[in-house]
Design brief:
This protein is an alpha/beta fold. The chain is built from 15 helices and twelve strands. Strands 2-1-3-4-5 form a five-stranded parallel β-sheet, sandwiched between helices. A four-stranded mixed β-sheet has the order 6-7-8-9. It has a three-stranded mixed β-sheet with strand order 10-11-12.
Length: 321
């Protein structure tokens, strides 16, 4: 097989799955909204289940739901038949996946849902199948061929299942009013967790703030700037609000007669600042970089008053960059 042929095969697969996704998007209707409402109303957990490749997808959907604030878990249908049905409570909702809807290992889960009046949402390509008929809500997969020519291996169908799960998770996330700050609770590690930390988490506190009054002579302001080693000094008014800041650039611009001036005369009014302190670290990094000029240090301000100071090195150590 030549490289060109291999590339052509890859493109054929991706095109087939992309077409399947387009059909899935076009087919979404009122039952999708019903499913989201059923998941939202659940007082217990969302129990995801499926066999084989559908089982792997169900496990992934459960993980996605859990990471976006919905109590969810995966139950293997075979294990369910041997005791794990007891993990499913009356307040739960079952989300069952099967392309054909005739997966025999799901029979006990389906019967259990009916016996205890547990809402059952089915994701299947066959509305008249056992799962399709038994489910309270059916999310239909469109008629889209698998991406394989020689064998009917699950390819397009599992892609559609994953996409349907993602659509449910995101719609449910927005239905709950889930925020980036909430997302951080479930993702404390890695770069994502770092980006979702707040400026208040990373900033240096009041004891390290380089602050002077507007009438402070520049000789004294330079001492504060040097002692605190941030390369910046903030200028605050009588009410404690941040009026401006003095950086190395300001010193160069006022080099003539610098020591005869006051901090208020040299400062740049309205400097870039992090406000409020709950701003995400990723947002603070963007603020440092854009719009120009780029800066390496920002005051963290609440109600106009400096609470702390944040340096680009703090973001680097936290793994934001």
């Amino acid at each position: 097989m030549t490289a060109d042929h291999t590339i052509a095969v890859g493109r054929r697969v991706l095109d087939a799955e992309a077409e399947g996704l387009r059909r899935l998007s076009a087919s979404l209707g009122a039952t999708f909204a019903d499913a989201v409402e059923a998941l939202f109303a659940a007082r217990g957990r969302i129990v995801c289940t499926g066999m084989g490749k559908s089982g792997h997808v169900a496990r992934k959907i459960a993980a996605t739901l859990a990471s976006t604030g919905s109590a969810a878990m995966f139950v293997h249908p075979s294990e369910a038949s041997h005791g794990d049905l007891g993990m499913i409570g009356a307040d739960d909702v079952i989300l069952a996946l099967s392309k054909t809807g005739e997966t025999r290992e799901l029979a006990d889960v389906i019967a259990y849902a009916a016996r205890f009046d547990i809402p059952l949402i089915g994701i299947t390509a066959a509305a008249d199948s056992t799962l399709g008929v038994a489910a309270d809500i059916v999310l239909m997969l469109p008629d889209a061929p698998e991406a394989t020519d020689a064998v009917n291996a699950p390819t397009t169908s599992t892609t559609l299942q994953i996409a349907m799960g993602d659509a449910l998770a995101v719609a449910l996330l927005e239905r709950r009013g889930f925020r980036p700050q909430d997302f951080r609770v479930f993702h404390p590690g890695g770069k994502l967790g770092a980006m979702l930390r707040t400026a208040a988490d990373l900033m240096h506190g009041r004891e390290e703030l380089p602050l002077v009054a507007p009438e402070t002579p520049m000789r004294q302001a330079l001492l504060v700037m040097t002692q605190m080693r941030w390369g910046i000094v903030g200028v605050t008014g009588p009410d404690g609000r941040l009026l401006g800041a003095i950086t190395d650039g300001d010193l160069r611009r006022h080099i003539d007669g610098l020591l005869d001036r006051t901090a208020g005369e040299v400062m740049t009014p309205g400097p870039k600042k992090v406000a409020p302190a709950s701003m995400l670290a990723g947002e603070a990094l963007a603020l440092m970089s854009d719009p120009p000029p780029a800066v390496t240090v920002l005051f963290v301000v609440e109600d106009g008053k400096p609470l702390g100071i944040l340096h680009v090195h703090d973001l680097l150590r936290a793994g934001v960059m």
